[in-house]
Amino acid sequence: MLSARLSKILEKIPSCDILADIGTDHGYIPLEAIKANKCKHAIASDVSKGSLEKAINQVNLSKLNSVIDTRLGSGLKILNEDEADVLVIAGMGGILIKEILKDDYDKKFKVKNPTMIFQPVQFPESLRKYLIENNFEIIDEDLVEDDKIIYNIIISKKGLGEKTDSWNDMDFEFGKINIEKKHPLLLKLLDRKINEQKKIIHKLKDAEGENISSRLEEVETLLYKFKELRKCCFQK
C-alpha cells in the first residue's frame, strides 16, 4: 500500500506513453503507474545502486520487466533525448531538483514538453523561484500530509511562465496556487511556521552576540508575514 505522499503523486500523473521516475528508490511510483494504466512504459532510475536494486527486485516480483526499465545514474542523464512524456522527481530537496533541471533539461528535451511532478522535501521556495525565473509554468500545486509532515507537490511544464515581480516571498514559500485555493493544509502549515518563529524569537531574546538584533528583526518580519497570510486566507 502506497503512503499518502506517494498516493498523491500517483494521482497527479496524467495518462502518458512513457513515465520517468527520477530517484525512484523502491520503484513504487512506476510500478503503481503501470498497474493503474497511467502509462504504457516506465523508467525507474536512481543514483544509488542499493536503491535501484530494491526497485529491480520489486519489478521482478511484479513480473513487469517488459514495461519498466531500471537505470542507474544521476538526474536526467539517464534519459534519451525526448524520451519521457511525464517526469516525477520526488523525495529530494528543492535545491537538488533545481540543479537537475539546470544541468540537463534543455539537453534532454528538444521537442517534447513533459509534464513534471515535483515533490521537494525541503526548500520548495528555491525550486519555485527557479521555475518562475526560467520560463517554467507552475500549472498546479497541492499539499499532502504524511506521517505528520506536510509535503508540497508542484506540477510544471516549460512555457512562458510568469514574471517574477508578480510573485512575493510568501508565494514562493507556500505556492501561489495553494494560497489562491486556500488549501486546508495551508492553515495547518502556517500555524506550524508561526509556532516555529515564536520559538526562535524566544531563544534569540535570551541570546547574546553582535548579529542577534538583525537576526531577531528578520525572524519577527517573517512571523508578521505568516500571520498576515493566515489572516488574509482564513480569517474573515
UniProtKB/TrEMBL annotation:
Alphabetically ordered keywords of this record: Methyltransferase, Transferase
- InterPro entries reported in the protein's UniProt record: SAM-dependent_MTases_sf (IPR029063), TrmK (IPR006901)
Q: What is the annotated signal peptide range for this record?
A: none
Task: Answer whether the UniProt record assigns the keyword Methyltransferase to this protein.
Answer: yes
Name the Gene Ontology molecular function terms of this record.
tRNA (adenine(22)-N1)-methyltransferase activity
Q: Decide whether keyword Methyltransferase is in the record.
A: yes
The EC designation for this entry is 2.1.1.217
Q: Which GO terms describe its biological process?
A: methylation
Q: What protein does this entry describe?
A: tRNA (Adenine22-N1)-methyltransferase
